[in-house]
């Protein structure tokens, strides 16, 4: 009997036994009023208990890469972690032969660490898949700063180039990052040409097209270039060609199968499918190039990924929606995720990793510290703020009157007003934090730290407006607040009557003059950025990395501040200004750095162990941004790999309730970012900003409740008046103040009734934004009222068991797997993940020792053990009650058989059923109840429902759905809602949660907790849902009888359509073989004048006479064979000839190296063996002792890697000599044995004699006579007797020509 049948049988037994009182059946007690009042409630609670769940405290888990096909991969040097939920999801197996293309020294030296190789392998594996819509699948690298996304991209490009795909496009946000891209490629031994965008293509294009050197390689382009155009042609034929078309033409059209790298891909997040006109140009261009190049290998790369599900629209190659996917289009996908909140977003991240399309690792924040600094305003600051709030309220009222008097019809008037209102108070809050910021910075400097101050806006636009008013000169620091206020009044306050431009309304003109006069009466703070720089020592002590061109500074501490260009106090070299400022900070010349949004990408300010300034960084956030992308980018500037110490983050906010609006916005974005790109909403940065997060479903409900209570004169349920006012106001006074506040905020119209506008009812961001314009006291009062409503809403959700805390851990003494996981929902498309049903046996009881320890941790007055006042089946029940934190009346209850309850109980309810007992009195009863619950339910061994009853049993079955779940959420929720009442499922069972559990053997499982009885019902519902489509398709496929009696078969020209949720298999292509020529090109350094004319170093190496003899005559070969013992081997002869040929070259250029290597390969392949001889390094067995060979200093580092016939790296033999100046790697023929190597010379042994010296001199003369002089550039053989001067002149002509 399956689970559903046994459960239905149990419910039938309960229904037949219960009669009119269902609780009587559950408790096996006769129904009656006495039981209903007391312990029947206890039994009901016990029946509803499942297992103890706690919010997961393990946000991060140390990451361990698994690359079994590359055994010598080195661990990453930094401390890398992964979100705990993602760590429980394993990547799929892969056998991609990456070792065929990555050189051995790159792997062994750790230039590509194990986790970086893992990213490369899974990206290449993913690119083998062709989606059902015909496009190649893409891969998403969501690694944070310090993991090495650039090297992973370089590894992907190297592998593809070696397999014959020689054209790739790399998009990023700045041209300055091209140097970083080249560095990452060179670091892994990849010398593929990097083309500087389409601009270099324009410069290199000739009459007959591009030269050969620019027809392949990597184009490094910015997103700004992608959306630009270029003029093509001259005269009448002049036309405009988009850069997009230019790139597609260079790639070769729709058959292009190279890589499309979208680095920092969050720049393309604003894409609206179906409404492309509403998309940004960058987002539209990114989506377009993906559609025009369907075979391209797409890699999405960003440390921040996406901050919202709607920003994933451009990631079409992930295959989450579209033809053959689980969702028909992006809108359906977006609705499925957004309606279910962050919990489903966490599951989505896990499923993406399980499908092999996504990885996300990051630097551990264990070394970093997070501190929230709240700045209390001084009385003078409060006075200034209250006056500013009053002035803006007067401006709002005057503007309303002026609009009516002048009949102004400007639809954007009020949106501009509230925008200026927000910017004004934002700058005011920042200005009031400056003294605290300066104090924190000076204290940190005294402790030996250095400072990084982060902000988003510099106020350059306001400064430019102020300069234009005063002819380009300003005397003293500029108040940005004042400029924002006066600019709005000047530009937007109407004074002329509409339709009568020459007629000016006298009242409006007077009001405008009066409002402008208020600006001078308010003591507004100066520009925060200029003020901080001035108080911390000026530009000579502070490194400013922003995007503004000029600033107001003092030349000397006592001089008048004046406006100067930032370039005027620099040396004016070719490097960018911000890079020079960054260098000054990293060298320790300046100990304070200020970064804005313009410098939040690509600049490293961490305590790099390679830098001179290794002081610990104190990162102070003066201004938190709205975008979590920017917040993470800015935090990542001071926390990266290879650092001597982690940063100390200080999030500075004021005590103003409205100023928390900015922290709340960032917290919401960071949580969402963590859920989508880390699998855990708290894992975006490691900072716990949950206390600032008000923009949640509970926050929106609380705001609606507060608005309703204020408008209708009622106190919100669950909120006490004293908790809001602390006895200062009566309810009538409080409600009157709150109504006045809503009027000032523009939420309700003056005289427009007691109702809030529908568009403002649940918008938490607008509420937090508008309260900035209230006085300090009123602002804090209404904000406190809102937080109390939020707490009441959350408490109610907790009591009812419907509060979603995200990923939770099942805590139990032991957890075991029941049977083997079985596949369910066959045929449903869940990406590459299948859905499995896992059943766990959880021992949820609490033994006596654990109970005693818990009681010791809670020693308040009413904490302790309790015994039931009445007996149940001849024994009393025992519980342990402990008071909840931050509550006076709610308690947590723990039982010996079911552990800690998920319900919070009132102390009054507990005292009505239980009495407080001492610890020693509770011991016997607690242990007895604990032991008895291990074998049967609370009803005892004679329970009429038998094994089907689990009420109060210690061993509890937990049913989980693991794997592909997101696509099934709608069906699963619908099934729960349909059968909840019929099957009498508890609220806890109906609350679908993502849980994590650790088995007894250490394995971890993450899945969706789902009632076992509902799984077959959900499968049946799915079959019925697909039945009509299947019947229609079956009818279409049946043959029909024509009027002439002939049988007509259905047409099979097009495949029959599948139901929307049915899987459509993707095509998996095999890996392409390695192309030797392409691999050699990628790993061989290019020839440059710099490395061609490198100074030479000498090295003595042991050689035999056979090499010289072999170059003279066959008879000398035989003589050498007798002296060497095995020199007549044809393989060795060929190797010796190749080596001697390379020695005869006057210069060791890389182009000749490549030629010799190729020739050596061709010669050796005739014998069935794949061997390579290093061109610049002769074979160890073919040179004479005492021969002097001239080598370039970097010749050892510029040699290509060797590969055997199976496309795998072969180990090279290293020739080591104690007398050598440099150690060079020398390839020995595979057929030679160790006995052929020259014996090592013993110390003190004489190696030279008079006769041997004459012999060597003679041999050198003969070799020099036979040596042919060849030009290393054009390979022209010079005439005999050509002098060195003539040869050098010929080489110069070749280089110049």
From TrEMBL:
<feature type="domain" description="Strawberry notch helicase C">
    <location>
        <begin position="528"/>
        <end position="809"/>
    </location>
</feature>
<comment type="subunit">
    <text>Interacts with TAL1; this interaction inhibits TAL1 occupancy of the DCSTAMP promoter, leading to the activation of the DCSTAMP promoter by the transcription factor MITF.</text>
</comment>
<keyword id="KW-0804">Transcription</keyword>
<dbReference type="Pfam" id="PF13872">
    <property type="entry name" value="AAA_34"/>
</dbReference>
<dbReference type="GO" id="GO:0005634">
    <property type="term" value="C:nucleus"/>
</dbReference>
<dbReference type="GO" id="GO:0006355">
    <property type="term" value="P:regulation of DNA-templated transcription"/>
</dbReference>
<dbReference type="InterPro" id="IPR026741">
    <property type="entry name" value="SNO"/>
</dbReference>
<dbReference type="InterPro" id="IPR026937">
    <property type="entry name" value="SBNO_Helicase_C_dom"/>
</dbReference>
<keyword id="KW-0805">Transcription regulation</keyword>
<dbReference type="InterPro" id="IPR057332">
    <property type="entry name" value="SBNO_a/b_dom"/>
</dbReference>
<comment type="function">
    <text>Acts as a transcriptional coregulator, that can have both coactivator and corepressor functions. Inhibits the DCSTAMP-repressive activity of TAL1, hence enhancing the access of the transcription factor MITF to the DC-STAMP promoter in osteoclast. Plays a role in bone homeostasis; required as a positive regulator in TNFSF11//RANKL-mediated osteoclast fusion via a DCSTAMP-dependent pathway. May also be required in the regulation of osteoblast differentiation. Involved in the transcriptional corepression of NF-kappaB in macrophages. Plays a role as a regulator in the pro-inflammatory cascade.</text>
</comment>
<feature type="compositionally biased region" description="Low complexity">
    <location>
        <begin position="1133"/>
        <end position="1151"/>
    </location>
</feature>
<feature type="compositionally biased region" description="Polar residues">
    <location>
        <begin position="1192"/>
        <end position="1222"/>
    </location>
</feature>
<feature type="compositionally biased region" description="Polar residues">
    <location>
        <begin position="1152"/>
        <end position="1167"/>
    </location>
</feature>
<dbReference type="GO" id="GO:0031490">
    <property type="term" value="F:chromatin DNA binding"/>
</dbReference>
<protein>
    <recommendedName>
        <fullName>Protein strawberry notch homolog 2</fullName>
    </recommendedName>
</protein>
<feature type="compositionally biased region" description="Low complexity">
    <location>
        <begin position="1105"/>
        <end position="1116"/>
    </location>
</feature>
<dbReference type="InterPro" id="IPR039187">
    <property type="entry name" value="SNO_AAA"/>
</dbReference>
<dbReference type="GO" id="GO:0071354">
    <property type="term" value="P:cellular response to interleukin-6"/>
</dbReference>
<feature type="domain" description="SBNO alpha/beta">
    <location>
        <begin position="846"/>
        <end position="954"/>
    </location>
</feature>
<dbReference type="InterPro" id="IPR027417">
    <property type="entry name" value="P-loop_NTPase"/>
</dbReference>
<dbReference type="Pfam" id="PF25373">
    <property type="entry name" value="SBNO"/>
</dbReference>
<comment type="similarity">
    <text>Belongs to the SBNO family.</text>
</comment>
<feature type="region of interest" description="Disordered">
    <location>
        <begin position="1105"/>
        <end position="1251"/>
    </location>
</feature>
<dbReference type="Pfam" id="PF13871">
    <property type="entry name" value="Helicase_C_4"/>
</dbReference>
<feature type="domain" description="Strawberry notch AAA">
    <location>
        <begin position="75"/>
        <end position="386"/>
    </location>
</feature>
<dbReference type="GO" id="GO:0042393">
    <property type="term" value="F:histone binding"/>
</dbReference>
């Amino acid at each position: 009997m399956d689970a559903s049948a046994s459960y239905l049988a149990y419910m039938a037994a309960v229904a037949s036994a219960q009669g009119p009182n269902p609780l009587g059946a559950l408790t096996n007690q006769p129904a009656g009023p006495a039981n209903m009042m007391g312990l029947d409630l206890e039994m009901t609670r016990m029946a509803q208990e499942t297992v103890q769940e706690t919010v997961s405290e393990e946000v991060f888990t140390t990451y361990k890469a698994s690359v079994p096909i590359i055994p010598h991969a080195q661990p990453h040097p930094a401390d890398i972690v992964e979100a705990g939920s993602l760590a429980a999801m394993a990547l799929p197996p892969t056998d991609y032969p990456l070792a065929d293309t990555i050189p051995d020294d790159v792997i062994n030296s750790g230039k590509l660490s194990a986790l970086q190789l893992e990213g490369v392998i899974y990206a290449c594996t993913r690119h083998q898949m062709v989606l059902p819509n015909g496009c190649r699948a893409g891969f998403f690298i969501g690694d944070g700063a310090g993991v090495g996304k650039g090297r992973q991209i370089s590894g992907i490009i190297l592998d593809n180039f070696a397999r014959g795909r020689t054209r790739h496009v790399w998009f990023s946000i700045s041209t300055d990052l091209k140097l970083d891209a080249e560095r990452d490629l060179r670091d892994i031994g990849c010398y593929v040409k990097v083309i500087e965008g389409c601009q270099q293509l324009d410069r290199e294009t000739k009459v007959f097209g591009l030269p050969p050197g620019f027809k392949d390689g990597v184009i490094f382009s910015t997103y700004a270039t992608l959306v630009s155009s270029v003029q093509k042609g001259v005269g009448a034929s002049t036309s405009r060609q988009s850069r997009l078309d230019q790139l597609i033409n260079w790639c070769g059209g729709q058959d292009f199968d190279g890589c499309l790298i979208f680095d920092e891909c969050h720049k393309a997040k604003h894409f609206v499918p179906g409404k492309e006109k509403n998309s940004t140009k960058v987002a539209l261009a990114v989506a377009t190039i993906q559609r025009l190049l369907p075979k391209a290998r797409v890699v999405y790369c960003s440390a921040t990924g996406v901050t919202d599900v709607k920003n994933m629209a451009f990631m079409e190659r992930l295959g989450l929606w579209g033809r053959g996917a689980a969702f028909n289009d992006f809108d359906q996908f977006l609705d499925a995720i957004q309606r279910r909140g962050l919990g489903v977003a966490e599951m989505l991240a896990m499923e993406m990793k399980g499908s092999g399309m996504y990885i996300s690792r990051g630097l551990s924040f264990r070394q970093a510290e997070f501190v929230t600094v709240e700045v209390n305003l001084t009385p003078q600051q409060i006075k200034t703020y209250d006056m500013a709030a009053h002035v803006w309220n007067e401006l709002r009222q005057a503007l309303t009157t002026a609009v009516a008097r002048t009949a102004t019809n400007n639809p954007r008037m009020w949106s501009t007003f509230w925008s200026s209102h927000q910017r004004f108070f934002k700058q005011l809050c920042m200005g009031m934090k400056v003294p605290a910021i300066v104090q924190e910075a000076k204290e940190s400097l005294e402790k030996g730290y250095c400072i990084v101050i982060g902000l988003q806006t510099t106020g350059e636009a306001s400064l430019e407006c102020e300069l234009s008013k005063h002819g380009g000169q300003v005397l003293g620091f500029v108040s940005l607040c004042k400029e924002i206020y006066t600019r709005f009044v000047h530009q937007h306050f109407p004074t002329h009557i509409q339709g009568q431009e020459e007629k000016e309304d006298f009242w409006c003109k007077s009001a405008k003059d009066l409002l402008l006069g208020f600006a001078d009466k308010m003591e507004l703070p100066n520009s925060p950025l200029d003020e901080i720089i001035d108080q911390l020592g000026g530009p000579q002590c502070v490194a400013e990395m922003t995007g503004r061109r000029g600033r107001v500074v003092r030349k000397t501490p006592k001089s008048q501040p004046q406006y100067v260009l930032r370039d005027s106090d620099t040396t004016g070299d070719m490097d960018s200004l911000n890079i020079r400022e960054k260098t000054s900070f990293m060298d320790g010349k300046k100990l304070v750095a200020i970064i804005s949004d313009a410098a939040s990408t690509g600049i490293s300010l961490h305590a790099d162990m390679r830098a001179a300034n290794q002081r610990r960084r104190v990162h102070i956030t003066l201004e938190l941004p709205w975008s979590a992308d920017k917040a993470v980018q800015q935090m990542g500037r001071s926390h990266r790999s290879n650092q001597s110490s982690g940063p100390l983050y200080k999030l500075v906010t004021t005590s103003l309730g409205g100023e928390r609006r900015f922290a709340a916005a960032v917290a919401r974005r960071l949580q969402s970012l963590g859920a989508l790109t880390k699998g855990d909403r708290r894992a975006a940065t490691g900072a716990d900003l949950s206390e600032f997060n008000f923009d949640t479903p509970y926050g929106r409900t609380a705001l609606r409740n507060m608005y309703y209570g204020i408008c209708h004169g009622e106190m919100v349920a669950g909120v006490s008046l004293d908790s809001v006012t602390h006895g200062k106001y009566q309810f009538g006074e409080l409600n009157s103040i709150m109504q006045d506040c809503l009027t000032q905020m523009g939420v309700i119209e003056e005289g427009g009734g007691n109702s809030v506008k529908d568009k403002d009812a649940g918008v938490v961001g607008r509420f937090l934004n508008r309260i900035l314009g209230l006085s300090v006291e009123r602002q804090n009062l209404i904000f406190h009222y809102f937080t109390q409503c939020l707490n009441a809403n959350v408490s109610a959700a907790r009591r009812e068991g419907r509060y979603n805390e995200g990923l939770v851990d099942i805590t139990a003494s032991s957890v075991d797997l029941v049977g083997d996981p079985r596949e369910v929902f066959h045929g449903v498309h869940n990406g590459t993940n299948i859905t499995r049903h896992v059943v766990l046996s959880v021992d949820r009881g609490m033994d006596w020792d654990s109970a005693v320890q818990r009681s010791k941790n809670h020693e308040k007055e009413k904490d302790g053990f309790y015994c039931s006042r009445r007996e149940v089946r001849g024994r009393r029940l025992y519980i342990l009650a402990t008071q909840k934190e931050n509550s006076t009346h709610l308690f947590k209850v723990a039982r010996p058989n079911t552990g800690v309850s998920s319900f919070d109980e009132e102390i009054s309810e507990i005292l009505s059923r239980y009495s407080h007992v001492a610890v020693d009195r509770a011991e016997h009863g607690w242990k007895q109840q604990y032991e008895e619950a291990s074998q049967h339910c609370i009803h005892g061994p004679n329970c009429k429902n038998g094994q089907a009853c689990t009420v109060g049993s210690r061993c509890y079955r937990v049913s989980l759905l693991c794997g592909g779940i997101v696509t099934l959420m709608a069906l699963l929720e619908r099934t729960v809602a349909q059968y909840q009442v019929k099957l009498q499922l508890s609220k806890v069972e109906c609350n679908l949660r993502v849980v994590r559990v650790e088995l007894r053997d250490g394995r971890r499982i993450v899945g969706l907790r789902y009632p076992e009885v509902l799984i077959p019902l959900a499968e049946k519902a799915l079959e019925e849902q697909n039945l009509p489509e299947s019947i229609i398709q079956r009818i279409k496929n049946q043959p029909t009888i024509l009027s002439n009696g002939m049988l007509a078969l259905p047409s099979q020209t097009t495949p029959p359509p599948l139901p929307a949720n049915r899987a459509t298999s993707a095509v998996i292509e095999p890996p392409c073989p390695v192309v030797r020529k392409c691999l050699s090109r990628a790993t061989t350094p290019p020839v440059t004048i710099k490395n061609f004319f490198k100074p030479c170093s000498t090295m003595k190496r042991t050689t035999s006479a056979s090499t010289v003899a072999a170059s003279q005559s066959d008879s000398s070969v035989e003589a050498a064979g007798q002296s060497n013992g095995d020199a007549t081997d044809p393989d060795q002869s060929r190797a010796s000839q190749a080596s001697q040929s390379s020695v005869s070259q006057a210069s060791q250029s890389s182009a000749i190296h490549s030629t010799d290597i190729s020739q050596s390969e061709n010669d050796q392949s005739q014998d069935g063996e794949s061997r390579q001889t290093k061109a610049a390094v002769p074979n160890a067995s073919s040179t004479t002792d005492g021969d002097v060979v001239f080598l370039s200093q970097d010749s050892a580092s510029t040699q290509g890697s060797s590969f055997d016939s199976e496309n795998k790296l072969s180990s090279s033999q290293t020739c080591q000599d104690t007398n050598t100046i440099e150690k060079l790697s020398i390839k020995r023929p595979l057929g030679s044995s160790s006995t052929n190597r020259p014996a090592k010379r013993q110390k003190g042994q004489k190696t030279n004699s008079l006769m041997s010296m004459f012999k060597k001199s003679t041999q050198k003369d003969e070799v020099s006579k036979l040596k042919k002089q060849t030009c290393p550039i054009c390979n022209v053989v010079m005439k005999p007797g050509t002098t060195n001067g003539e040869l050098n002149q010929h080489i110069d002509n070749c280089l110049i020509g």
